[in-house]
Amino acid sequence: MTKKFFGTDGIRGLTNKHPMTAEIAMKVGQAAGRHFLRGDHKHRVVIGKDTRLSGYMMENALVAGFTSVGMDVVQVGPMPTPAVALLTRSMRADLGVMISASHNPYQDNGIKLFGPDGFKLSDEDELKIETYLEEETKLAPAADIGRAKRFEDARGRYIHAVKMSLPDHIRLDGLKIVCDCANGAAYQVAPSAFWELGAEVVSLGISPNGLNINDRCGSTDLATLQETVVASGADIGIALDGDADRLIVVDEKGQVVDGDQLMALIGSSWNRDGLLRGNGIVATVMSNLGLERFLKSQNLDLVRANVGDRYVLEDMKKGGYNVGGEQSGHMILLDHGTTGDGTVAALQVLGQLVESGKPASELLHLFDPVPQLLKNVRYSGGQPLESEKVKAVIAEAEKELEGSGRLLIRKSGTEPLIRVMAEGDDEDQVHAVVDRICAVVEEVAG
Fold first, then answer.
1. What is the pLDDT of residue 211?
2. What CA–CA distance (Å, rounded) separates 320 from 276?
3. 20-54 pLDDT, tens per residue?
4. What pLDDT does 1 receive?
5. d(CA 220, CA 244)
6. Are 187 and 342 in contact (CB under 8 A)?
7. Candidate list 54, 68, 100, 102, residue with the active-site label
8. 80, 93, 242, 398: which has the fewest Cβ within 10 Å?
9. What residues does 238 pair with on adjacent strands?
């Protein structure tokens, strides 16, 4: 059964356009509340958000929906996505909600749902909620309407939890860190956590105004971070996205370090310390062939999941792995949380920086990436990938790369984009293949 509302990471879209309207948000609250009204205890939902202007509207609509079916609501305000997952579990809530469109611009927003175990909902749960969205809502009797309460201690609890992910003997004294919070959900908690552990912190992207989230800052635009790291003589730069569930690093020379290198570091260091489970890590089909070759040299496996941290997590749980992530910076470390957490992942990197005594440029360059190119083609409708002309050029490219590279074509799960990726040892060939496919997709997509 195809889902109408939920994509690869909750419900997402342009604010005040279907499905990202206050009306739909209220109905999602009612439908999700109905689905999780189980047992005879007093039911509770935790709601967090990032710093988008539309977050106020979506939050109030969700509160109305949940309370109307009899659920109490705990509002924690601007908090990272992993904080909502953590608080949902620690507060024994029935459900957690994060209002965020992650790395998207402020005009977009989204709704991510977590179950009582702190994990994102299964496809079955999402389908059931969609079924309820189509049905008439059964409202609670007047005496059973839920209450809403703001929880002021959420930031402190989350900061304490992320600090506990670092061994007690490790301090960050002497480290100079530039931290770019993307004017997003971690603008208070991430710099505080690093500072409390002893680091000197230069903070960027900590002045949200509702409109500047991810705007020329954060993990999707690293120019200012790179310049600041070099100009200030910092040891490392940390870049988070709007909801702080992903991490990109900049070394002391201003060079970008992506999720593949970070997974290589965390996986190999955890293996060395006897902490790695599953004898490998889980990444996605987008991860570089160089990561796979590096792990093989360490006698470790690489499992490739579909794109999306929920699919990485599914394969991690299925295979007993505790390290997984995406090239884009999602890092899932199941020893410390139930979803991607950029701040926790950053602390793992910073801990290795302290213990190794190496500069970041050396520590974080564990393999030479194979030349890889990803381009996006925007389309307005239809099914460009079903075109015989597109199928033909893809088949031709696959034959050309056979034995020396890899081709991946897929639709984005969150935006109307066709993603075209190729990698191989011959960089010129990779560029030629991607450009040729993109040209045909653009022609067919109009």
1. 98
2. 10
3. 999 999 999 999 999 999 888 999 999 999 999 99
4. 63
5. 12
6. no
7. 102
8. 398
9. 179, 249
Q: How confident is the model at residue 380 (pLDDT cuts 50, 70, 90)?
A: confident
Cα distance between residue 193 and residue 365, in whole Å: 26
State yes or no: is 102 an active-site residue.
yes
Rounded Cα distance between 246 and 251, Å, is 17
**DSSP secondary structure code for residue 308 in this structure:** S
Mean pLDDT of 362-384: 92
Please report, for residues 119, 156, 218, 370, 399, the alpha-carbon distance to residue 184 in angstroms, rounded to integers and kept in the order given: 22, 17, 8, 32, 44
Q: Which two tokens stand for residue 293?
A: 């070759």
Can you tell me the distance from the alpha carbon of 277 to that of 300, in angstroms, rounded to the nearest whole number? Answer: 11
Task: Copy the structure tokens of residue 440.
Answer: 């045909």
Alpha helices in 53-153 (DSSP H): 55-68, 81-90, 123-133
Tokens describing residue 108: 């977009």
Q: Is the pLDDT of residue 405 over 90?
A: no
Among residues 376, 346, 350, the alpha carbon closest in space to that of 437 is found at 376
d(CA 384, CA 411) in angstroms, rounded, equals 10
d(CA 78, CA 14): 20
- The b/e string for 77-98 (b: 16+ C-beta within 10 A; e otherwise) is bbbbbbbbbbbbbebebbbbbb
Residues in the chain: 446
What are the backbone dihedrals phi and psi of residue 179, each rounded to the nearest 5 degrees, phi first?
-120, 115
CB within 8 Å of 136: residues ≥ 6 apart: none
Sheet holding 405-411, edge to edge: 372-378, 417-424, 405-411
Query: What CA dihedral angle connects 267, 355, 331 and 47, to 10 degrees?
Result: 140
Helices (H), 197-341: 223-232, 259-272, 289-297, 309-319
The single-letter DSSP state of residue 10 is: B
Q: Nearest-CA neighbor of 185 among 242, 112, 125?
A: 242
Tokens 């790291």 map to which residue?
A: 229
Q: What is the DSSP string of 327-379?
A: TTSBEEETTT-SS--HHHHHHHHHHHHHHH---HHHHT--SPPPPEEEEEEE-
Confidence band of 126 (pLDDT split at 50, 70, 90): very high
Tell me which DSSP letter residue 80 carries.
-
Which contiguous run of DSSP H or E holds residue 73?
Answer: strand 72-78
**What angle in degrees, to the nearest 10, is found between the helix axes of 342-356 and 259-272?**
60
The per-residue pLDDT for 381 is 78
Q: How far is it, in rounded angstroms, from Cα 377 to Cα 387?
A: 15
Distance CA 93, CA 122 (A): 17
